[in-house]
């Protein structure tokens, strides 16, 4: 696709971080890891990747603000634009040698995400979107699936870990959903979960207790691929509520009613 200058800057930063992450992933057993809380780990790889992205983006656009998972937020000289970055989404997979994790970079303008990049370096899959211009995987245009039958559809979610999250609520969701679908998948990277719905590899996705950097890029990619994205309650912006439900237009109504139990 013919991306904007900003999108090209984002892609370059994601590729640079990807090279660093792939190198660390090859020697993952030597990585220093610390815990930020139960089941929530951060490694030297997360921090190195964030520094690479931050340096690249701040140098290219010195006036923009910054929010990243592993470093302090910066209010930009231009208060209308900021980067929202997760340098490594899926750290738990990464640390277990599972090749399913991604770099997520979004650009917000006046409270709206206008460009998004989710890069899976292990598979060399670059998912990108720009508001109003569509979504792409490498050179191919992305489109959500056209399935309409719940029983043929696959849904993606995240499950509580390390004692965090609402286990009873999750089990109730699954109890209603599982019998009427082709299955539920739990891959461990919210950014890729969204990118996969955009690519039609999943028909819907829902999760609670997310941070803006997990989903900012991915939700634009889903929308630009023709999917619906809402907060779980249907009110407010998922970037603020920290929960979301999305899906292709053919199943979204039935799927969201099932999860919302209405
Ligand atoms: P992270 O890898 O950037 O921390 C939502 O599932 C998000 O929760 C994931 O994208 C992941 O982002 C984060 N998370 C943190 N610890 C996790 C764990 N132990 N298992 C799964 N997800 C975890
Ligand atoms: Ca983390
Ligand atoms: Ca994350
Ligand atoms: Ca992360």
Automatic annotation (TrEMBL):
Reaction(s) this enzyme catalyzes, per UniProt: a myo-inositol phosphate + H2O = myo-inositol + phosphate
User: Does the keyword Transmembrane helix belong to this entry?
Assistant: no
Instruction: Tell me the domain of life.
Output: Bacteria
Question: Which sites bind Mg(2+)?
Answer: 69, 86, 88-89, 214
EC number(s) on file: 3.1.3.25
**Per the entry, which co-factors are needed?**
Mg(2+)
Per the UniProt record, one Pfam family is Inositol_P
Molecular function via GO? inositol monophosphate 1-phosphatase activity; metal ion binding
Keyword Metal-binding set for record: yes
Q: Which PROSITE patterns match?
A: IMP_1, IMP_2
Alphabetically sorted, this entry's keywords are: Hydrolase, Magnesium, Metal-binding
The protein's enzyme class:
hydrolase
Q: What processes in GO biological process is this protein linked to?
A: inositol metabolic process; phosphatidylinositol phosphate biosynthetic process; signal transduction
**Similarity comment:** Belongs to the inositol monophosphatase superfamily.
Question: What is the protein name stated in its UniProt record?
Answer: Inositol-1-monophosphatase
Originating species: Kangsaoukella pontilimi
Phylogenetic placement of the source organism: Bacteria, Pseudomonadati, Pseudomonadota, Alphaproteobacteria, Rhodobacterales
């Amino acid at each position: 696709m013919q991306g904007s200058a900003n999108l090209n800057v984002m892609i370059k930063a994601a590729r640079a971080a990807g090279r660093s992450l792939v190198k660390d992933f090859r020697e993952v057993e030597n990585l220093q890891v610390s815990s930020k809380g139960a089941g929530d780990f951060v490694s030297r790889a997360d921090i190195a990747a964030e520094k690479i992205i931050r340096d690249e983006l701040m140098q290219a656009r010195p006036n923009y603000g910054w929010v990243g998972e592993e470093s302090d937020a910066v209010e930009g000289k231009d208060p209308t634009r900021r980067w929202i970055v997760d340098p490594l989404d899926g750290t738990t997979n990464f640390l277990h040698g599972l090749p399913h994790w991604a770099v997520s970079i979004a650009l917000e303008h006046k409270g709206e995400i206008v460009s998004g990049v989710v890069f899976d370096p292990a598979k060399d899959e670059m998912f990108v979107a720009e508001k109003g211009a569509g979504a792409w995987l490498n050179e191919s245009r992305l489109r959500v699936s056209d399935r309409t039958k719940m029983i043929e559809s696959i849904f993606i979610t995240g499950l509580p870990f390390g004692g965090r999250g609402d286990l009873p609520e999750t089990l109730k969701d699954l109890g209603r959903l599982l019998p009427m679908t082709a299955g539920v998948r739990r891959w461990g990277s919210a950014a890729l979960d969204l990118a996969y719905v955009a690519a039609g590899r999943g028909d819907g996705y829902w999760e609670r207790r997310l941070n803006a950097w997990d989903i900012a890029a991915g939700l634009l990619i889903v929308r630009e691929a023709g999917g619906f994205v809402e907060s779980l309650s249907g009110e407010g912006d998922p970037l603020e509520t920290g929960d979301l439900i999305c899906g292709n237009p053919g199943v979204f109504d039935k799927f969201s009613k099932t999860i919302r139990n209405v």
